[in-house]
Design a protein that fits this description.
single chain; 507 residues; mainly alpha; Amino acid/polyamine transporter I; 0% strand; AA/rel_permease1; Amino acid permease; transport; membrane; transmembrane transporter activity
């Protein structure tokens, strides 16, 4: 009989949480596949491509597709940084606990305040877009504000009911949404590419005159939102860390899978619609502001269009579901440390389903209120959602910056997922990419309309300003005694415990 080398030891989920100062109170019923499905349906290529297809082409022409490659590569670097962080800190809440443990409570509070509002606004906008699909599916008027409001509220309540049922149902519906997304973006995209192509591939190198008399570089950078709006949602994999089996190893993989599969899906979909468009010049010139229905009618016919609408509505429901779940876990994590008004109520977990029900109620109610406000004054939809993407990128980069700060101070991530000596390089490049993306998002437009040109910055200033005011007056960071800035100490503790476990295995 030959001797076999002992398997490397690692901390159990209970032991890992104990090092971080928490008890294992949630059901770990979410698999790697379900965790990936959660992030993917949050990222939702259908939502991203459908929402910005016409805008991207009218601003940057067909070459705007290259933003999918650029932003996908940048966000993959960010996901690698997040992977090392979550591997050491596999706890609920994502951005908040990561920023707190890497820097301090005040820093984390501001990052999370902006992030919470960005997610809540995103829930509202996704439900609104989904309501348009649902209205078309059931033969209702998608241009009627009251119809859209009622369907939006229905989608929010449906997602809340599924979330209330527990993590298993969240994972199941997320997997259904994943399949709907894959069929809707990859399946349909491939069909359009292979059988309904009306334009040549060379069109992706043709600006088709969008630059006018100016430089095409300005038009190309103006179309950056095509990718920037698409590639976030992968962080939701970490928001539910305490409900995932072996999260320190699985969540980093799920986040990277979300970026890679989401990027490929969006690419197939975007390219398929461009190449199948019967009148691409009309879309580029802005004459056809909602071209996807006409493309579908001319390629798959009325029945195919109806099938696509069913798939799209399923994907939107799953996306709202995932967004609610991520927002509720973030609120719960924030409240668990006493950092929000009503933190005792918000941090309660259902004994039956073991989900943060009160936080879920907030994650449904506030978007519903915003939907009613938009119904009263539809013009507010743009200023309400304008800051969302920039807010999320700001929150992302707060973690990337804090991670680099700790590395400079000597931190070497101790989770089972590690980039090794490449960690610093990846961290620096991810930060540079993030700052570039934030510049593109915050850069004022040039329409001459002050409100339209500065709406993104105005939204961010309002949210950040209110957060700073509350933080200065109420000092919620003083209420909490949650650990902060302990990345180096925790890494040493994890390595010491892992070494002891390895010695036992070797003995």
């Amino acid at each position: 009989m030959t001797d076999q080398a002992p398997k490397p030891a690692s901390l159990s989920d209970n032991e890992h949480l104990a090092v971080l100062g928490y008890d294992d109170t949630f059901k770990r019923s979410m698999s790697l596949w379900a965790n990936f499905a959660l992030g993917f349906t949050y990222l939702s290529p259908i939502v991203g491509v459908y929402s910005l297809f016409a805008v991207s082409l009218s601003v940057g022409g067909p070459p705007s597709v290259f933003w999918i490659f650029i932003v996908g590569a940048g966000q993959l670097l960010v996901s690698l940084v997040f992977g090392e962080v979550v591997s050491q800190y596999p706890i609920h809440g994502g951005i908040y606990p990561w920023a707190r443990r890497l820097w301090n409570r005040r820093y984390a509070w501001m990052a999370t305040w902006v992030y919470i509002w960005a997610i809540i606004v995103t829930i509202t906008s996704v439900a609104q877009y989904g309501a348009g699909f649902a209205a078309s599916l059931f033969g209702m008027d998608p241009s009627n504000p009251t119809v859209i409001l009622l369907i939006t509220l229905g989608l929010l309540l449906l997602a809340l009911g599924i979330n209330f049922s527990g993590t298993k149902w969240l994972g199941r519906v997320a997997r259904i949404g994943l399949m709907a997304e894959l069929i809707g973006v990859i399946g349909l995209g491939l069909y359009l590419l292979l059988f309904q192509r009306k334009n040549s591939f060379s069109v992706f190198f043709d600006s088709m005159g969008v630059e006018g008399a100016g430089s095409y570089s300005s038009a190309f950078f103006g179309a950056a939102l095509a990718g920037l709006f698409l590639f976030y949602g992968f962080e939701a994999c970490g928001d539910v860390a305490e409900e995932v089996e072996n999260p320190a190893k699985r969540i980093p993989v799920a986040m990277m899978m979300t970026i890679l599969v989401g990027g490929v899906s969006a690419l197939f979909s975007f390219c398929g619609y461009v190449l199948a468009a019967p009148n691409l010049q009309a879309i580029v010139s802005g004459e056809d502001p909602d071209p996807i229905p006409s493309i579908l009618d001319s390629t798959v016919g009325p029945i195919g269009t109806k099938v696509f609408l069913i798939i799209a509505v399923t994907a939107f429901i799953s996306c709202v579901l995932s967004l609610q779940a991520a927002a509720s876990r973030l609120l719960y994590s924030f409240a668990r440390d006493g950092m929000l008004p009503g933190h005792v109520w918000l941090s309660k977990v259902s004994e039956r389903t073991q989900v943060p029900t009160n936080a879920l109620i907030v994650a449904c109610t506030v978007p519903a209120v915003l939907a009613v406000i938009v119904w009263i004054n539809p013009a507010l939809m743009v200023p309400i959602t304008g800051f969302a993407v920039l807010g999320i990128y700001c929150a992302f980069q707060s973690v990337v910056l804090a991670s680099l700060r700790q590395r400079i101070r000597g931190w070497k991530p101790a989770g089972p997922f590690s980039l090794g000596r490449w960690g610093v390089v990846v961290n620096v490049v991810a930060l540079a990419y993030g700052l570039f993306a934030m510049f593109l998002l915050a850069k004022p437009g040039d329409t001459g309309d002050f409100w339209a040109d500065y709406v993104v910055l105005i939204g961010l200033v309002v949210v950040a300003g209110s957060g700073i005011l509350y933080l200065t007056i109420a000092r919620p960071d003083r209420v909490s005694d949650a650990p902060e800035g302990d990345a180096i100490i925790v890494a040493e503790q994890i390595r010491a415990l892992t070494s002891k476990a390895q010695d036992k295995v070797s003995a």
